[in-house]
């Protein structure tokens, strides 16, 4: 009877938590007889380089080195001044659009008044 085997299209990268790494290191430290360490590595599916790297990190006290680090760019802290600048720019754009609408309405009123034969007095502010 043949066993059903499934081949995964793309292998997923294994990630080890700090607790798993420390557990494996403790088990490796307890291996004293010949062949025990290699049996442990085969059972866990690890390479000896994993143990070497994890031992160095443990020796240096780099507990953060034992946890997987997030990949990608780090988020920059938001400066409150940048937030205020963006808010003021938004307000300026809103007011500018409102001003353009008001100027358009004034021009329309002037043209309507001129068509009706009732011209408005000249604007002295311009």
Helix and strand pattern: HHHH
> What is the number of independent domains?
2
Rounded to the nearest angstrom, the radius of gyration is 36 Å
Number of helices: 4
**Helical residue percent band:** 55-70%
Structural class: mainly alpha
Low-confidence stretches: none
Residue share in β-strands = under 5%
Shape: rod-shaped
Give the assembly state of these chains: single chain
What is the straight-line distance between the termini? 97 Å
What is the average of the pLDDT values?
85
Main β-sheet description: none
Strand segment tally: 0
Kindly describe this structure:
With 126 residues, this protein is mainly α. The chain has 2 domains: 49 residues, no CATH class; 41 residues, no CATH class. The chain is rod-shaped, with a radius of gyration of 36 Å. It starts with 17 loop residues before the first helix and ends in an 11-residue tail after the last helix. The mean pLDDT is 85.
